[in-house]
Amino acid sequence: MRAPITTPSAQCINILFFPPTQVTVEDGKVFVTAKKKDLESSLRVKDMSKRCLLNRNTMLLLGGGVAALTCAETLRQEGFTGRIIMATKEKHAPYDKSKLSKEMNLKAEDIYLRKPEFLCAHGIELWTEKEAASVDFQKQKVHFMDGSSQKYNQLLIATGGHSSFLKVPGADLQNVCHLQTPEDASKVLELASGKNLVIVGASFIGMETAAFLSDKAAAISVVEKQEFPFQKTLGPQVGGVVLKMLQSKGVKFYMKKELHELKGKDGKVAEAILASGEKLPADVVVVGIGVTPNSAFLKGTSIAKDNSGAILVDLRMQTNIPNVFAAGDVVSFPVALLNGDHSSIHHQQVAEAHGSIAAFNMLKKQKELHTVPFFWTTMLGRSIHYAGCGKGYTDTVLKGSLEEQKFLIFYLKDGFVTAAASLNCDPAVSLIAEVLYLGEKISKEEAEAYNINNICL
């Protein structure tokens, strides 16, 4: 298997964890050659300490996603020999949630981040279908929905978020779906095949679902309040490209429209009625209108949260409660690219960074968060890469061509770049992320002078 490396820093570091490989450089590209079976079977990790029964300290991690998993592994890697418990309401081992809308035909086992055997081998207890009901911070005890409870020495809250619910008549009809689990993805795939699909929301869940099902559903209609897909995150220019990409596959868009009501037949959704009066046939509806933090079980406690319910943490992932940390989609944290203002960023790479930093500080090894958010979205065989935090951007600089679907766009605030996105311009975004990570400024003039032809592979 021979593949070019398109993200120099991150990918080259990963070479250290590959099985034996041959590395060559041709025309400025780095190629790694290895046996495919070795890559598939060899997943090397840092050395981990073993569980010691004499160590009576308990690290209780609420959540079974990437933040909790990274925290658990980092605790072992940093020498913790006490008890580690991951308690999750999921019935699966930690899996890659980002693939639920990108590859809806995968089973949970196909997207496991770690197999149960791995966790067991490293003394990490996984409690599935174990949802937290409340926390007594004074007694350092968590109570669960099944009536059991568990004391802790250090607590990590990494319960993630859930898809926000529709607030229209008919929202409780059968076949109105939220993509939360692999079972949800399989259900939508089965229901939508050869049928009429309505998607409410034109951000990541909605657009990735539309792309994956574009050749499977009989008809796909997208309803969105904004003028363009991804408008709040990627802006109208990139959103316009995505709009045309999906329209070319037969997806119909009802932009600047609102869902007014869902009507059913025999208890199942049958029709979506817009505020404009338009009626859309709907055998299945997928809802992707945002994320709400899973923090309701903390109601009535003194833990600090913002207006959305996200838990407020500092750069050490510490909450306002002693011995209580939080990470991932459930938190709002200080973002360097926003001059330290708090924000919630729902990306897997950010959750990984949170989990690692939380582990260090749970062990009293003082370490602060230092990362540049990075994510990608895949649709119709094309990937849009994004790095930084463009929240509140006031200006953009476009390099390349939107029409040719090969471009790099800079997002600026107060005259400086805070984020960048690209399509078919690798590894430009990764290189920009490195600059931002080093704390260096990129001015509008520098962005305008950027030559993508000298960078893109």
How many helices? The count is: 10
- Main structural class: alpha/beta
**Approximately what portion of the residues adopt beta-strand conformation?**
25-35%
Largest sheet: 5 strands, parallel
Cα shape: globular
Q: Give the proportion of residues in helices.
A: 10-25%
**Estimated radius of gyration:** 23 Å
Account of the 3D structure:
This protein is an alpha/beta fold. Helices cover 21% and strands 30% of the residues. The chain is built from ten helices and 29 strands. The protein has helices at residues 8-15, 36-41, 66-77, 116-121, 182-192, 204-213, 235-247, 348-362, 428-437, 444-449, and strands spanning 2-5, 22-26, 29-33, 58-62, 83-87, 124-127, 132-136, 141-144, 149-151, 154-157, 161-163, 176-178, 196-200, 219-224, 252-255, 259-265, 268-274, 279-281, 284-287, 291-293, 311-312, 324-326, 331-334, 342-343, 374-379, 382-388, 395-401, 406-413, 416-423. Helix 3 (66-77) runs parallel beside helix 8.
